[in-house]
Amino acid sequence: MTIKIGDTLPEGQLAEFIETETEGCALGPNTFNVRDLVKGKKIALFAVPGAFTPTCSAKHLPGYVKFAAEFKAKGVDEIWAISVNDAFVMGAWGRDQKATNIVRLLADGNAAFVKALGLDADYSKSGMGTRSQRFSAYIDDGVVKQLNVEAPKTFEVSTAEVLLSQI
């Protein structure tokens, strides 16, 4: 079953490559419980089929970086990018895109979280296996307030501009 507006995010874990060690977060990959991360926060979330892929790197992530201040001005606490990649790849993608400390690059290495959302996709024909569908969502304290799922091979409804206009 696919998650919908009004639903609470399912249990799940995502990994993030931490660039600077802090109390409670070691340098390198750290795993976080999604429900803990969203508690009491407003999150602009978007998911991509893969880090470093053409549309994801040229358009999707850059849009959220570009409009980060506008999201914050509307009360968004964090912007998340989720992809079925490992935390090392997501960390490298964030550095490459100059998105570190602007967007949280969260890895769903085994696609468990996107499967729990019902938003996984089979990219086996492209040699990529199970991935995430391209989508965006606005999450308030764990509840889905907006959800924009792209049709295959499109990039129209999950842009930063569209999600920003819905908040």
From TrEMBL:
Q: What is its EC number?
A: 1.11.1.27
Q: Name the GO terms of the biological process aspect.
A: cell redox homeostasis; cellular response to oxidative stress; hydrogen peroxide catabolic process
UniProt xrefs under Pfam families: Redoxin
Alphabetically, the GO molecular function entries are: thioredoxin peroxidase activity
Q: Which residues form the Thioredoxin domain?
A: 3-157
Catalytic activity annotation: a hydroperoxide + 2 glutathione = an alcohol + glutathione disulfide + H2O
**Which keywords, in A-to-Z order, does the entry hold?**
Antioxidant, Oxidoreductase, Peroxidase, Redox-active center
Of the GO CC terms on this record, one is: cytoplasm
Top EC category: oxidoreductase
Q: Which domain of life is it from?
A: Bacteria
Gene3D superfamilies, per database record: Glutaredoxin
Q: Does the keyword Electron transport apply?
A: no
Active site, renumbered: 56 (cysteine sulfenic acid (-soh) intermediate)
General function of this protein: Thiol-specific peroxidase that catalyzes the reduction of hydrogen peroxide and organic hydroperoxides to water and alcohols, respectively. Plays a role in cell protection against oxidative stress by detoxifying peroxides.
Tell me which family the UniProt entry assigns to this protein.
Belongs to the peroxiredoxin family. Prx5 subfamily.
Protein name (database record): Glutathione-dependent peroxiredoxin
According to its UniProt entry, this protein's organism is Glaciimonas immobilis
Q: What is the lineage of its organism?
A: Bacteria, Pseudomonadati, Pseudomonadota, Betaproteobacteria, Burkholderiales
